[in-house]
Amino acid sequence: MTRSYAVDILRGAALLGIGIVNLPYLAQPLAAQMVLPETILDLVAKGLVSLLCEGKFFVLFSFLFGWGFGVQLASAARAGLPAGPKYRARLIALALFGVAHALLVFPGDILLAYAILGAGLWSLREASPHRLWRIALWMVPLAAMAFGLLGVLDGLSSAMPQGAVDLGGNGYRGSFAAGVAQRLSDWPITLLVVALFNGPLAFGAFCLGLAAQKLGFFDTGKRMQAKLATRLPLLLAIALPANGIYAAAILGYLPAGWPTYLGFAALALGAPALGAVYVLAVLRLAPHLGLLAPVGSMPLTGYIGQGVLAGAVFHGWGLGLFGTLGNAALFGVACLIWLAVTGAAILWQRRWARGPLDAALRATAAGLARSTRRHAG
């Protein structure tokens, strides 16, 4: 089946935002994420990332995951084959890659969460677009509660006795083995953060993506895109104040207690609204963004590749710059890493159709499916 050029471009753009958000957690101790930067430039950079990036791009990526699930279902139906075994094997493979990614590259991995949430999406494969839309809407108040809880936990962390939890990340300054041990130590914390920060909105975006596939959002006629474009003023009216309130909470500009917790919760509205604006903007500019399609066609390679490059720059087995750069510098480094991964994808695609890790995921899933069929037989 022919790939969607527009979807690949969207994925390529989303990788930039994901890299910008994730890099501080790869380049600085967790303790540094719980205090405000000391310089004005770093404070502005942190505020802009909170305002424009945090929460928006994983929602976009999740939307495309749901759309891809719908494409797989439609492809299996056209071929007259059951979609369940192949999809189940792919989720197991994704979970295995997620665990490996969390231990070897980045403990804030989202692949394992995608595998778990993807299992829930299977139960909605025959749901109508209207039902999927309603479920996605219900995820918003659930996400607001989860974000508010993160705000509570953030406040409690400042009162935590020093040394109660290792937040210094010293293992990342040592050998690769020391880094693995540090990631294993950090994983319980990051698993909780991923569950709260990503879980509800990611599942809601899965549902929206599946509904979009059923309604032909990326089809040639683009009727659904035009319909979404008419909602642009409403989306901006929601996105700008909601994300502004969230950024104010992150920067400590709101009073402590309930105002700050509600500021965190505002992201539940701001993230999907601004994510939808980004979808419209990228689709409008798609004819000029063709260079993003190669990296977008190999999203797993791009996602993990950015983390590997970040490790090479910041961790002890590489250049060892861990904890030395502020937020403004990290923004620039994240852009450079994304450019490097995007350029490598362009060169790779001249010879091979799939990215190396995407091909490995596909081969692992195929092997699991064959093994399951043998045991079933």
Automatic annotation (TrEMBL):
Pfam families: DUF418. It comes from the Bacteria. The chain crosses the membrane at residues 12-36, 57-79, 91-123, 135-153, 189-211, 232-254, 260-283, 328-348. Residues 214-365 form the DUF418 domain. Keywords: Membrane, Transmembrane, Transmembrane helix. Coiled coil: none annotated. InterPro entries: Bact_Transport_Assoc, DUF418. This is DUF418 domain-containing protein.
